[in-house]
Amino acid sequence: MKGKILGVIGHPIEHSLSPAMHRAALRELGLDYPYDKFDVKPEDLGNFVMGAGENFLGFNVTIPHKVEIIKFLNSLDREAELIGAVNTVKFENNARGFNTDGIGALRALEEAGQPVGGKNILILGAGGAARAISFQLAMEGAQISLCNRTRERAGELAADIDEKLDKSAEILDFPLKEKLDEFDILINTTSVGMFPDTDKSPLSGEILQPDLTVMDIVYNPLETKLLRNARETGCRTIDGIAMLVHQGAESLRIWLNVDAPMEAMKKALLDELG
Ligand code: NAP
Question: How many C-beta atoms surround the C-beta of residue 179 within 10 A?
């Protein structure tokens, strides 16, 4: 299987949805690549990456390795370099890191008919996913505002965007209290509302307004409390599966230069989530 293995590495890894999604895609494309999950402990990461080029074409990277893996790679593409985190590795002559989370979010918005250029976008959170999405959307010409429980973390992300892209990002206090009149798009990148805490939302539904597009990148449950409140307010809503499928599709394009079968991937994820 020299250079043919695909997979996902993380720790823990047993609940990853990536194998179901990617196996469905590879089956649909008639491509004979195995896609498996690999539980790699932090102390084993370096050895794993350095030995992987022999057998792997590439792999996805998830918690807790997205930042740490960088020091074991030979090169990074522009997005991964800006974001400072990697979710996709490809072995060609050497190990190159990519980040497809931001492009996944962008494609999910575009698919829903929501362009981002020139739009005012409020991002809740300042963790790994927020970094990827903020950089990508700022590069597409969106005006980014950030709101995070730990304000300093939002400040660090804003400073990083300013330094690397020469674009300013406003910081709002968490929790939000004012009506979200000045924004076109709201994206929740916090884990608030994720199973089992499905009765929680990162903001009060009363501050939503119908012109807003609301995207929640939490995908379990598919309709979070935030998305339910948004739907009831009359907002356009985008669930977390959309980003998950698009970031996976982008990984497949990087490894195999193929157009991913989006419907088959989405169906596999929905089946997996029950
Ligand atoms: P992360 O780096 O750990 O960041 C977590 C974020 O959530 C931080 O901003 C954190 O705020 C905030 N947060 C956590 N608990 C909170 C609470 N009780 N109240 C308010 N804020 C809280 O995680 P991540 O990698 O960015 O992932 C975040 C979520 O996105 C996860 O649910 C993950 O499953 C999902 N995700 C989805 C996709 C997709 O394709 N759909 C892709 C990546 C991630 P502090 O800074 O204050 O701690």
Answer: 12
